[in-house]
Structure formats: structure tokens, C-alpha cells
Amino acid sequence: MLIDRLLFSFFCRLGDRKNKKTMSIPDAIERRTDIPYGNHGKWNLLDVYCPKGTDKPLPTIINIHGGGYVYGTKEVYQYYCMYLAQQGFTVVNFNYRLVPKISFPTPVVETNEVMQWVCSHAADYNIDVNNIFIIGDSAGAQIASQYCTIVTNPEYAGLFSLDVPSFRLKAAAFNCGMYERFHELTISLPGLLTDYFGKDPLEHGEKSHMLKYINRQFPPSFIMSAANDFLLPCAKPFFEHLQEKGIASVCEIYGTADQKDIMHVFHLNINSETARKCNDAQCDFFRKYTFS
Fold first, then answer.
1. Per-residue pLDDT at 16
2. Contact by Cβ (8 Å): 211, 180
3. Does 205 or 4 have the greater pLDDT score?
4. pLDDT confidence tier of residue 203, bands split at 50, 70 and 90
5. pLDDT digit string (tens) for 118-130?
């Protein structure tokens, strides 16, 4: 609902403005910005970051931003993504259309459009399509987990009628996310869920049953949350589901109850020692699954 969208966006902006004041563009990073990947103007633009002097394809991270489906842009996430690029990756950071202009599953479809662009332009942007990693937080983690399921299960992909391009998805990281347990949020964020998924999140039939379609091909996964993350209850059940499927996965919960700044999507504040620890751990996790 409108009031939920406005309140959620307001509090997101407060945190983002605070973080932005202390961040700057690293000298060691090459930025190529505002590249169109689709037909919807500013909402279908992406950036590509990589270490300066890169002359070969690098393992590539695709970042899917969060924001409750109503908030967020690649500009908000640029400093975080450039930090990841400094660790030796090419990083693709993109906008997608938001509620109320769209509803489910538009961001999933546009993620696939990004991947089509990535596979078509890899040679020009130091992208290694044989070493692709997907990362998402909050709503972006839900989108990322759904897209990973689409990529690794043709039956599930068929429900969305997507033309998934050919690339090798090596691993994924899911930060402070929700997954299929939509009902967990109906008290705290009812309007956001209704605007994106509809009055009943399960009205989309089999598309809503992502967990059912996760198979052994799902990528190795790093699941992260925080002691003061309002989505903390979603982390362990998702991790346990992946474990039951035999998927290599880890689950890390950062901070303690008295560390109020280690909260939902704390990892975006790259000035935080705990955020850097988390981000470095995820980059190390990705390196385990990188092959030349």
C-alpha cells in the first residue's frame, strides 16, 4: 500500500544518505556506467566495474539490489559493488523497475535480460561467462534465489517462459533475504508484499513454490543475516532446505543483539569492519568455485 511504500523508502533513504557521506569512488576501479540492457529508460541501465588495467575476463558478480521491491538503484549500491570489484572481480550492478509501476515477476524477467546482455557483451567488458556469481540482498536475495532456481531447473524456467542464456553459474550469496516464506512479512510489511505479489502471494501458482524446484544443480550458496535483521527468521530455514538437497552451503549470522548497527543489509556500509569481514568472506567463498 502507498503508506507502506513511502515509509519503507523514507527509512531506506536515511540509511543510504548516511553511508554515502563517507564513501568515495576508488581510484583503482574502472567504471563504465549507464549502459542500456532493456527498453525502459533509466530503469533498464547497468554499470560494470572492474580493477583498472584489467586486460582479460575476470570472474563476474551480478548484483541484484534490495529495497522491498519499491526502492533502490544501482547508484545506491555502487560503492558496495566497487568494493567487491576491488577484490578481483568484474561486477555488474543494475536497475530494475519497481512497484507500483510493476509487479511480480518483472524483476526476475529483467534479471534475465541483464544476463542476456552479459553473455552478448562479455568480450567487451572483461566478463567471464564461465565464472558467473549472483549476489542479492533483502528483496534482491529473493529475486536472486528465484533466478538461480530458474537457471538450474528448466522445468521451473518454463513456468516463466524465459530464454535463459548460456553461462556457468558457479555460486551465489544471499544477504538478509526472504525466500519463499512470504507469510513471515505480512505483519511488518503487508503493503509491500501485496503490491508486488498480490493479495495472496501464492496466487501465482507453481511460480510461488520456488523451494519445490530447487535441485542438486542449484549453486553453492553463502547465506547471511544479522542478529538485528528483521528477516533473520528466514535465513536458517533456507539454509537447511539447501542442506537437505545436498547443496554446498554455509550460513553466517553477524553481530549480537547489542550491536544495533549490525542490522538489515549492514554489509552495504563498507566503512564497517563487520561489513568488510562479511563481504570478504563471500568473495573467498566465490573464489573456491572459480575455475580457469
1. 60
2. yes
3. 205
4. confident
5. 999 999 999 999 9
**57/72 Cα distance (integer angstroms):** 28
Q: Which amino acid is at 199?
A: K
Domains of the chain, by residue range, sit at 2-288
Mean pLDDT of 66-72: 93
Percentage of residues of the chain with pLDDT beyond 70: 87
Predicted TM-score of the model (pTM): 0.93
First to last CA, the chain: 48
**Cell numbers representing residue 90 in the block:** 568484474
- Give the length of the chain: 292
Class level of CATH domain 2-288: alpha beta
